[in-house]
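queue> pop job 88
queue> type: inverse folding (structure -> sequence)
queue> payload:
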C-alpha cells in the first residue's frame, strides 16, 4: 500500500524507534505512548486488519504473539501487560495495517475504554 503509514515505516521512508525486526515482523515504540512501555508489533506484509486474514495468512498472528512475549520479557513486564488490536473505525483502528499494541510498565485499568 503506497499511502499506508506502517508500510512507509517498514520501507524506512519514515523513521521509527525499532525494538525488534526479522523477515516478517517489525516492532517499534509508539510515538504517542499510553503507558511507560507501548510498542507496536506489525507484520511486514500488509493486511488491513484481522478481518483480512485467511487460514493461509493467519500464522503471522501466532508469530506476533511469540514476539510480544519476547518483548514483554525484554522490557521487564513481569507483572503483566496488555496486547490488543483494534479492528475498524468503531473498534478504534486509526491505521489500516494489522498491528498489535503491547502496553505495560504500570498497572493498567480494567476498563477497556
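queue> result:
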Amino acid at each position: 500500500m503506497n499511502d499506508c503509514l506502517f508500510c512507509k515505516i517498514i520501507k524506512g521512508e519514515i523513521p521509527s524507534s525499532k525494538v525488534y525486526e526479522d523477515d516478517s515482523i517489525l516492532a517499534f515504540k509508539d510515538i504517542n505512548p499510553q503507558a511507560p512501555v507501548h510498542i507496536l508489533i506489525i507484520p511486514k506484509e500488509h493486511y488491513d486488519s484481522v478481518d483480512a486474514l485467511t487460514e493461509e495468512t493467519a500464522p503471522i498472528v501466532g508469530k506476533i504473539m511469540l514476539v510480544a512475549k519476547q518483548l514483554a520479557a525484554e522490557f521487564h513486564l513481569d507483572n503483566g501487560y496488555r496486547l490488543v488490536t483494534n479492528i475498524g473505525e468503531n473498534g478504534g483502528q486509526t491505521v489500516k495495517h494489522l498491528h498489535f499494541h503491547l502496553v505495560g510498565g504500570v498497572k493498567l485499568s480494567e476498563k477497556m475504554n
